[in-house]
Specification:
This protein has 136 residues and is mainly alpha-helical. It is built from six helices and two strands. It has helices spanning 5-20, 28-35, 39-51, 76-84, 109-123, 128-135; strands at 55-58, 64-67. The protein has a two-stranded antiparallel sheet. The longest helix has 16 residues, at 5-20. The protein starts with a helix and ends with a helix.
Length: 136
């Protein structure tokens, strides 16, 4: 499994908003400068995060983006899934139900299930608040 730049930048953007959004909305231009990511790419990421209900936007001079809840209310896994989709290591585990015709006889399936469970358990055990506190 490899997390794309979209997922990595989404996590960085959310952390940036957590650090800098106590006073209100944060402009994407400011996030772009601090994170060295283009505003255009951040706009794409912001759309996905906004659709997931993780950030709120406001237009105007004092506008920008802010988190919709406290940093401890965001699991890293949820942020990654909002931008990456499934984090499953193999396609047959990407959906709720494994519809692979070989799933009943696949000798490697237990390994992939274990890996999927380990990754999910880890990414869902870390919150944005944990990352914020770890950085201080």
């Amino acid at each position: 499994m490899k997390i794309s730049t979209k997922g990595r930048y989404a996590l960085r953007m959310m952390l940036d908003l957590a650090k800098n959004g106590q006073e209100g909305y944060v402009s994407l231009r400011d996030v772009s400068e601090r994170q060295d990511v283009t505003v255009k790419y951040l706009e794409q990421i912001a759309t996905a995060l906004s659709r997931a209900g993780y950030i709120h936007s406001q237009r105007g001079n004092s506008g920008g983006y802010r988190l919709t809840r406290e940093p401890d209310g965001y699991r890293v896994g949820d942020i990654l899934r909002a931008t990456e989709g499934s984090l499953a290591p193999v396609a047959c585990l990407a959906d709720e139900e494994n519809v692979c015709p070989r799933s009943g006889e696949c000798d490697t399936l237990p390994f992939w299930q274990g890996l999927d469970e380990a990754v999910t358990r880890y990414v869902d055990s870390v919150t944005l608040g944990d990352l914020l506190n770890q950085h201080k």
